[in-house]
Amino acid sequence: MIARIWRASATAEGAEHYREHFSEQVLPQLRKLDGFRGATLLQRAIPEHTEIEVITRWDSVEKVRDFAGDDIRVSIVEPAALAVLTHSDDFATHHTISVEWLPSGPEA
């Protein structure tokens, strides 16, 4: 499995708007894509701004390419998201998930 990681920053208000945009617009679209296996939105408030990190999970690099295009490093950021961010990385990084454990039932 491949983790695609992208970073941005925003004001506290902008980060809340981004969270809403991600939940209401981005996730529903990602869920429709073959090979998409999940997403995590992380936010960390520091005095100057709120850091944002998005981690999406994909079956393979090929499935990432289906989403992102030939150059999988290029970030895919909608104009509505850019409008609420103070900075966004132009590129995403990709990592092979070597170990991941997530609780999924009563035994967790």
Kindly describe this structure.
This protein has 108 residues and is of the alpha+beta class. The chain has helices at 12-31, 61-68, 79-82, and strands at residues 2-10, 36-45, 50-58, 87-88, 93-96. It has one domain: Alpha-Beta Plaits, CATH 3.30.70. The protein contains three helices and five strands. Strands 1, 2, 3, 4 and 5 form a five-stranded antiparallel beta sheet that branches. Strand 2 and strand 3 form a beta hairpin. The longest helix is centred in the first third of the chain and has 20 residues, at 12-31. It is globular, with a radius of gyration of 14 Å.
Any idea what the CATH architecture is? 2-Layer Sandwich
Estimate the mean pLDDT confidence. Answer: 95
List segments where confidence is low: pLDDT < 50 over at least 5 consecutive residues. Answer: none
Give the H and E element order.
EHEEHHEE
The outline comes out as: globular
Number of helices: 3
How many domains? The number is 1
User: What is the name of the CATH topology?
Assistant: Alpha-Beta Plaits
Number of strands: 5
- CATH domain class: Alpha Beta
Q: Give the biggest sheet.
A: 5 strands, antiparallel
How far is the N terminus from the C terminus?
22 Å
- Please state the CA-atom Rg, rounded to the nearest Å: 14 Å
Structural class by secondary-structure content: alpha+beta
Question: How helical, in percent, are the residues?
Answer: 25-40%
Determine the strand fraction and express it as a percent band.
25-35%
Secondary structure layout plus pairing:
Blueprint: E1 2-10, H1 12-31, E2 36-45, E3 50-58, H2 61-68, H3 79-82, E4 87-88, E5 93-96
Antiparallel strand pairs: 1-3, 1-4, 1-5, 2-3
